[in-house]
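Sample pair:
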Amino acid sequence: MPDSAIVAVTELAADSHSVITRSQAAAHLSDKRIATAVRTGWLDQPYPGVLSVAGSVESFEQRLRAATLAVPDHAAASHRSAARLHGLDGFEQERLIELSVDSAHRWRFGGDVVAHHVAALGRADVTEIDGIAVTTLARTLCDLGSVCRPDLVAQALTSARRNGCSLRWLRSAAERLHRPGQSGTGRLMRLLDAIPTEGRVSESWFEELLARCLDDPRIGELTAQHVVVDADGGFVARVDLAVPCVKLAIEAHSKRHHFGPQAEAADADRDLRLAACGWEVIYLGWHATKSPAEVVDLVAAVVDARTEVADTPNAEKSDR
């Protein structure tokens, strides 16, 4: 018959990435049995006072929860680790274990854990995601600027805005946390200052990258999420980017939204309807963001060609 105490501890750990505190285990096992479990290898002890079930599948969340429990109530996942937990674009594959720790409780983690000792880690700046203490979205965006490239911070802010994050909340947090010389809060406030003049939020970071790559006077003004209508005003399609003056549509061709038979069939049908209205559609993939100069030259050539055709008298067009 299974040992009921062991079953209870295992089930408790299963609900929290196979990681619990020693005090949680003590509710079911004596100190002697816990010590025996660690010695015999049934339980691991990654940090003093923190236990994990041996043989469990290691995950990012497991490593992160164990590290935060090493300094209970005084540490939280932060910076890039927090960005992943919050689901911010650009951090989906982040593996770095990064924490903010109250400076009054300095702790040497060692290994691959990056600890930022902060003056204070108040309740207003900490929340919980999937059982892991983590800095709030606003605090995370304030911190990212001190460890990430500006474009990654802008990408994270864009995804937060797309999910309905309050700009007033972000600015309030940035102003509250800002100190002279702090790069993270300063960078976030500059990005927030630019929002009133940048227009709508792109539906994807890929779309925004393409718009930046194509910001060239030879191409003309681009319109994001442009709606095309027919001669009677009926809806034809909505395209990622457009140069309306020459009826050129530019689609961000990502595997997420344009892959598979159904997506390809829908694209083909939409492209035919656009062609019937005189529009041309070109698709740009991720390589466009890697070699923008070459792509800009090619798109500019397409714009020039369509401008030339548009300026050609109808009589000359019919002779071709």
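The chain has a mean pLDDT of 85.
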